[in-house]
Amino acid sequence: MAGLPDKTGKYDLTEEEASRYDRQMRLWGIEAQQRMRNSTILVIRLRGVATESIKNMVLAGIGTLVVVDGEDVAEEDLGAGFFYRDEDFGKNRVDAARARIESLNPLVNVETISNSSVLEGEEFEALVRRVDLVCATDLDQNTLVRMNAVCRQFQKPFYAGGTYGLVGYIFCDLLRHEYLALDRSTPQEHAKTIKTSAVYSPLQEAIRYRWSNLTKRQTKEINPALVFATLALWQFQSLHKQLPDDITHADELEATANSLLLSGDVNKQVLSSVPRSLIESISTTAGHEFSPVCAIVGGMLAQDILKALGGREPPIANFFFFDGNTGGGTVCRMNMP
Predict the structure, then answer these.
(1) Does 263 have pLDDT greater than 50?
(2) Cα–Cα distance between 334 and 329 in angstroms, integer?
(3) pLDDT of 275-325, one tens digit each?
(4) Could you give the CA distance from residue 78 to residue 69 in angstroms, rounded to a whole number?
(5) Under 8 Å between Cβ of 52 and 142
(6) Do 25 and 33 meet the contact criterion of CB atoms below 8 Å apart?
(7) Contact 232, 260 (CB under 8 A)
(8) CB 311: neighbour CB atoms within 10 A?
(9) Which of 128, 139, 192, 328 is a good FRET partner for 230, with 20 to 30 A between their CA atoms?
(10) Tell me: domain 15-180+290-332, CATH 3.40.50.720, correct?
(11) Confidence class for position 96, pLDDT limits 50, 70, 90
(12) DSSP character for 307?
């Protein structure tokens, strides 16, 4: 039985919910759990990263999950997409996955939309208006920029994430986001939390970041090679309407990455060109999904969304890049005030 709504229309946790989420409420508090319980999350495109993120968010106890995907289950989806089975081949992705998503947590309301037309024009605007947060996965840069702009229009937080073979990324635009953080002005033994805020930038502005204001050490810690290889991949996809899938694409991808590196004004003592080995790895694997990479990126994506909903810890500011070749990841603050 659902709890009763308060004056704002939000619902209290039921006894069943309080019992199921007891352990995690001890970790992040009842208020954070309540905010998750009253949230409606829109996830766009159900591939490997979204599969992992949905699992974690549903188990954590969000209120409503809306998943949109108009594509059918393909053979490659059967690897990283653990909501699918062999017999689901050829079925619509969300139709095939819905029952398995619901079985993770019967207390979460799951809605699926198998018509991708809702992601365009006024239908998309209407969809964004009725959710609390949008998470778009494995989409091209132009589509992400457009969706981010619509989310900004209606003041809704926006996340994007995806993998390209052995590399992956997360981006978030949380508008002006308030959260609790440790007060570093007090001694550690007397540390307390204070409310603070961060102002985020839309994707279109974030990717125009110039690196000249970073020190040599700061630039090295961020690993700009991975950043510019990913941005070059986005440009390749925009130009060719597909991802690179062969070593013959490496020369073009390398030239694009190094051009972006130059225009980004990166310290040449740290990186004068993007390593050929990274370019070749991306050129041959970008169109494939690897379960371990999807699990890492999707898990971090869900964790950060839950942080944003709970408001108890600082979320990513504002990019995260992961390199499966080295097993390392880096957070990169790009064009945030």
Answers:
(1) yes
(2) 16
(3) 999 999 999 999 999 999 999 999 999 999 999 998 878 899 999 999 998
(4) 16
(5) no
(6) yes
(7) yes
(8) 18
(9) 128
(10) yes
(11) very high
(12) H
d(CA 106, CA 9): 22
Q: Which residue intervals of the chain bear CATH 3.40.50.720? A: 15-180+290-332
| Main-chain dihedrals φ then ψ at residue 18, nearest 5 degrees | -60, -40
Q: Phi, psi (5° rounding) for residue 321?
A: -120, 135
Inter-residue contact 285 to 164 (CB < 8 Å)? yes
pLDDT in the model for residue 32: 76
- Please tell me the distance from the alpha carbon of residue 126 to that of residue 333, in angstroms, as a whole number: 31
Can you tell me the distance from the alpha carbon of 128 to that of 50, in angstroms, rounded to the nearest whole number? 18
Per DSSP, 107 falls in state T
Residue 1 has pLDDT above 60, yes or no: no
Query: What DSSP assignment string belongs to 135-202?
Result: EEES--HHHHHHHHHHHHHTT--EEEEEEETTEEEEEEE-SEEEEEEE-TTS-GGG--EEEEEEE---
Torsion over CA of 135, 285, 206 and 328, rounded to 10 degrees? 90
- b/e sequence 13-22, b meaning 16+ C-beta within 10 Å: beeebeebbe
Q: Is the peptide bond before 318 cis (omega within 30 degrees of 0)?
A: yes
- For 245, the token pair is 């899938």
Q: How many residues does the chain have?
A: 337
> Distance between CA atoms of 208 and 320, rounded to whole angstroms?
16
CB atoms within 10 A of CB 207: 22
Q: Which amino acid appears at position 265 of this protein? A: D
Task: Give the C-alpha separation, 332 to 321, whole Å.
Answer: 8
Q: What is the CA radius of gyration of the chain?
A: 20
CA distance readout (Å), 105 to 21, 92, 112, 314 = 11, 22, 16, 27
Q: Is residue 116 pLDDT above 80, yes or no?
A: yes
Contact 299, 55 (CB under 8 A): no
